[in-house]
Every structure is written in C-alpha cells, then in structure tokens.
Amino acid sequence: MNMENASLEYAKKLDAQDVLYKYREEFYTKENGIYLDGNSLGLMSKRSEASLLEIVEAWKQHGIDGWTEGEHPWFYLSEKLGEKMAPLVGAFSDEIIVTASTTGNLHQLVATFYQPKEEKTKILADTITFPSDIYALKSQLRLKGFDPEEHLVRVESRDGHTLSEEDIIAAMDNTISVIVLSSILYRSGQILDMKRLTTEAHKRGIIIGFDLCHSIGSIPHELSEWGVDFAFWCTYKHLNGGPGSVGALYVNRKHFGKVPGLAGWFSSKKENQFDMDHELVPEEHAGAYQIGTPHVLSMAPLIGALEMFTEAGITRIREKSLKLTSYMMKLFEQELSTYGFIMRNPLEENRRGGHLFIEHPEAARICKALKANGIIPDFRAPNGIRLAPVALYNTFEDVWKTVQVLKQIMDEEQYKKFENKRGVVA
Ligand SMILES: *Cc1c(COP(=O)(O)O)cnc(C)c1O
After folding, report:
1. Which residues form the domain of 90?
2. Residue 89 near residue 68, CB atoms below 8 Å
3. Quick one: average pLDDT of 290-313?
4. 138 C-alpha to ligand 1 centroid (Å)
5. Which one of 154, 276, 300, 409 has the minimum C-beta count within 10 Å?
6. From ligand 1's centre to the CA of 132, what distance in Å?
7. 0.90 exceeded by pTM
8. How far apart (Å, rounded) are the C-alpha atoms in residues 235 and 211?
9. Ligand 1 pocket, 420 CB below 6 A?
10. Per the structure, how many domains does the chain have?
C-alpha cells in the first residue's frame, strides 16, 4: 500500500464502494465510538430489539396461547430459527436446532456420539482450544468411566497459536472414537480445514464435530457436503443474538434416528410430546437433541438478527470481512511496524477468520487506553489483543481511525496511565 492508500480519503472511498454499508444504520453504534469486539458479543440491532419486544408483547397478549399463536409461535421457534441458520452453515434445515448453550450442546452431542468400543475409547482435541470445550470433554470421559488424563488426546500447537492439519491427522489413530475441534481458533483466528479433517477422520472410522462459535456468521460452511457429523455454536458473537442468546447445533442427516444421549420431553416428536407418555418417541431430525422448554426470550432477538444475514448473505459478509482485516493488516504494517506488535493470526485469506490477533507486552493496558479513546477491543491474557472489524457494522473508516488512535497511544505512551492487568471479562 502506498502513502495515498493510507489516507482517510481512501478509507472513505472503500466505504463508498461497500454494498453492505447500509447495515451499519441498523445497529446501535456510538457516535464517536468504534466497536471491534463483535467476536465476543455482537452489537444490538434495531431489528433484534423489535423482535424481542414482539415476543414480550405476545406473552402479554396471549399468555399460554403464545406457544401456538401470534406471529412467532414459541413451540416452533427453535426449528424456525434453525431453518434461518441453515444457509450459514451449509446444512439442510432439519439438521439444525436452536437450543441450549454452546457447552450444553457439546455435552449433548458427545453424550450421544461418544460410544467407546473395543480399542476406540479416546477423544481427540487440541491444547489451544477454548477451555469450556476441554472441561466438557473431560467430564464426558469421566461419566463413561475413563480417565481423562489418558483418554483425552490433545494435539499440540507448534507455534502456540495455530494447529497443523498434518499433526491432527497424524493423531487420528485407531484408539480415537470422536474428534472435537474448533472451526476457527478463538485466539489466533486460524480456520481449520474442516473438509479435509472430516474426510481423514471418516477414512479411519472416527466421528468428527466442530465448535463453530467463531465462524458462524463470519465465514461460509458446507457442513452437509463435507459430511461433518455434528457441530454446535453460540449466537451472541457474530450473529448478534444478545447476551446469553440461545445456542444451536447441527447433526448430519445420516445420524437421524439415534436416541439422544441426554433426553427430555422436548426431544419428543412434536405431535407426541403432549401425550405425556413415559416412552419417549424422539423427533426424527435435529430437534431430538433438545432437552427442556426453550428459552424463548433469549431466542427472540435472533429473529431480527438473522433476517439481516438472510438478506446480506454470508458470501458478501465474508468478502467484506476479508477486505476489512486485509486493510487493517496493511495499515498495521505501514503505521505500526516499529512499536513491538506481533501479528499472530494467519496472514493467508483462506486460513484467516474474522478477527486479528496481535500480541504486545503491554497489551492489557494498551486495550485500556483504546477503551479510554472510545475504541472497544478484546483482551486475551496474557498479552493478546483481538480486533474484529465486523462486516455488518464496521467501516473502513473505523479501521483507519483505530490504527491512527493506536499510533497516538504508542507515540504519547498513553497506556502508561493504566495498570497492565486484565479486567474481569475482557
Ligand atoms: C464463546 C465460545 C464458547 C462459549 O460457550 P458458552 O457455552 O456459549 O458459554 C465455547 N467455545 C468457543 C470456541 C467459544 O468461542
């Protein structure tokens, strides 16, 4: 990039060419603030607010009848929202259900698919994944009477930030029963080659599932085509469903008819559920993986949020996201190369997710200084800064300003006014 391209005018030109620019208006952004933490908690949109209020109104108007009446009958909402998510993950509508939380869904799926037999008794994961996933896998092993120390195999990272598909494949030996990996690693933002890993797992008779928390709403997937066995994700990051919004899961059609590991009355075929029979007849699709009454109020904002994904399309969202992160990387190179920042996210487009991951010894207090300047980053201990310019509500001007402010923070040593320690959440 030359000097001219590092100008504010150039950023504005990119915004003027952006076909998704209009969606920014749909979100509650701050006048003089820049929100770059959409990979932890997406911003609230006006459509989410409206759909939340609609559900609240339905409760007010219909009481118990809200389950089957009103514009969004609650009894069918988990399935309806699953249909809306299908294009985002490349699945058939009936392979998805909106239910529970990420970790709860991981428990449900492993309780179902981890069926240790003969020498196949181990679960394969990795050493740099999100801790909740490891806690869940260890407890599932214990529940089946295995020692996690021996039966949870974790692939090491060579550089502490990324995983090599070769190393993962090499670990797929005949003792592995199930593999659980992230589609995009939560720190470095590396995309794993899900298609290749699925093919290799299946060659060895291993079931494979992915945690899509950081890829849902950020990159396209082809879960059905790749033959992925199961997947699960949250909806409060790139999908903007709001704090604690209900998660989702995917089960490949070839597994329909299995009895869920953790059953409840919402696992029932819908038409049988209110027969109240003690013999469960599970739903024939992903709906079988529900347990109890859906958290309707925590699904409501998704109705509005997902509409925008349907309209904008995940392909266009991914195109813009790559442009935003490429632009930010170039500006970092040009403006901030002498300040000790190290870019840890993959540089290649096909391996880079929706956020950048940058390390700096003063990261904790640089994040505090950014916040004092109205820019919201995401700190990851001990020294990582995640910056997520989100396609639906961030602009190229946001990216440009962020780099300018960061340069000023470094030049003026503004970060020294703060303690180099993390806060409770980020
Ligand atoms: C955010 C995130 C989670 C969160 O799990 P919850 O059960 O929704 O709290 C799990 N795994 C990964 C990879 C995440 O990024």
Report:
1. 50-311
2. no
3. 98
4. 16
5. 276
6. 7
7. yes
8. 12
9. no
10. 2
